[in-house]
Write a structure and sequence with these properties.
The chain is mainly alpha-helical and 398 residues long. The protein is built from 22 helices and no strands. Among the domains are: 120 residues, Alpha Horseshoe (Serine Threonine Protein Phosphatase 5, Tetratricopeptide repeat), CATH 1.25.40.10; 119 residues, Serine Threonine Protein Phosphatase 5, Tetratricopeptide repeat. Helix 12 runs antiparallel to helix 13, helix 18 runs parallel beside helix 20 and helix 20 runs antiparallel to helix 21. The longest helix has 25 residues.
């Protein structure tokens, strides 16, 4: 961190009354109502996630963690749940922020922080556009924008308010404030003055509002900077938090290029990311989605298989492969992999639906009816369209 910025951040911390706490999470229903929903829709990962947030508000952190892990067990690629697990240690131990800032993290907290970083990375690998708002629940409250401006000047007010905007989902405001900050500190002429965190948040905000060219520019800066930082860190051999590494910035940039409508560039960058980390299973998932959209099923199927090899513990990847095989007209193979997905996670109702579709196309009427009926037994109530479709399919079976 820039020493000038660190100095003023220290002054700012002194201006924040210690009584101020992180925000409560705004929820549409009360805890008892959310608990009732989670019991009624016990196979709905979203219901377990929502009740976890309610437990969080009540400082019942063990219950919150249990519900978050239940949500992930039902849907392994639930990005918001992974991000919440990344933030949970900061809710349990409010002084962790200061310990990190001062470089005085207790030894027993280092493995917890490392696991937090892994969950953070996983959330953004699953979905770089993951909802940031859970971060606001553990971020210490900041003084009013105008108070900061009076004490420290507009640049510092823009710096802190920009983070708040992004964490509360106001991406246009976040992008605008950081744009003003960069102009204020002449960051366009002296980019070294712009902290990595500004490029990261501003890049994500830009992607959220469709300014992909801006996001691309910022992530390329982060990749360049992080390469040098990681080399220096490796040479020191000391603990330092690195929530996102160079290759994860590279992967995020590939998702931006894909969204920007540059599939050739995105494919090249996904392959580059995979060359650095063969375990980066979400790169295979996104490549498969890209090839599937082009109806290039041979390449899509291979990427699905590669994703399973990279992360064999996620049965939803078997479901993805089964669906792709079904779209390619390979119904027996689709059925085989969908059954593997059922074995791996028998509470994921989505797999039974697609299994029923494959069996219907194979002419296996009895099996298809059983699979679709099982889907109806397990499906969360919010799957109303799929429930209607399953009932219609059953009605059409002889």
């Amino acid at each position: 961190m820039n020493m000038h910025l660190r100095r003023w951040m220290t002054i700012l911390c002194c201006l924040i009354p210690q009584a101020l706490a992180a925000q409560r999470i705004k929820l549409p229903l009360s805890l008892p109502e959310l608990e009732a929903r989670a019991r009624a829709d016990s196979n709905d990962p979203a219901a377990h996630y929502n009740v976890a947030l309610a437990y969080w508000n009540e400082k019942r952190y063990d219950d919150a963690e249990h519900s978050l892990r239940t949500a992930i067990s039902l849907e392994p690629r639930f990005a918001e749940a992974h991000l919440a697990l990344a933030c949970l240690p900061f809710a349990r131990r409010a002084k962790l922020w200061n310990e990190i800032f001062e470089g005085e993290v207790p030894q027993d907290q280092i493995p917890i922080l490392q696991q937090s970083d892994r969950e953070y990375r996983h959330a953004f690998l699953i979905d770089p556009m993951v909802d940031f708002r859970i971060i606001a629940a553990v971020t210490p409250a900041r003084p009013d924008f105008l108070d900061v401006q009076d004490y420290l000047g507009e640049a510092y007010a823009l710096f802190f308010q920009g983070f708040t905007d992004c964490q509360e989902g106001r991406y246009e405001d976040c992008h605008g404030r950081f744009e003003s900050l960069i102009r204020d500190i002449k960051g366009d002429r002296f980019p070294e003055r712009v902290p990595n965190s500004v490029f990261w948040y501003k890049g994500i905000a830009a992607a959220h509002i469709g300014k992909y060219d801006v996001a691309e520019q910022h992530f390329r800066v982060l990749i360049s900077r992080n390469l040098n930082f990681e080399k220096a860190l490796a040479s020191k051999g000391e603990f330092s938090r690195v929530p996102l590494r160079t290759n994860e910035y590279r992967y995020t940039l590939a998702t931006v290029l894909q969204a920007e409508g540059k599939p050739i560039d995105a494919i090249a960058l996904y392959h580059e990311a995979l060359a650095e980390d063969i375990g980066l299973y979400m790169a295979h998932v996104r490549l498969a989605n890209l090839f599937e959209a082009q109806k290039d099923y041979p390449h899509a199927v291979q990427e699905r298989l590669d994703a399973i090899n990279a992360n064999p513990d996620d049965p939803s990847l078997q479901m993805d492969l089964g669906v792709t095989l079904g779209k390619a007209g390979m119904m027996p193979q689709a059925e085989t992999h969908l059954k593997l997905a059922v074995d791996g996670n028998p509470r994921d109702s989505r797999t039974y639906y697609w299994l029923g579709v494959a069996q219907t196309n194979e002419g296996k009427t009895t099996d298809a009816k059983a699979s679709l009926t099982k889907f109806l037994e397990l499906a969360p109530s919010r799957y109303d369209k799929q429930i209607a479709a399953a009932k219609a399919r059953i009605a059409q079976l002889p």
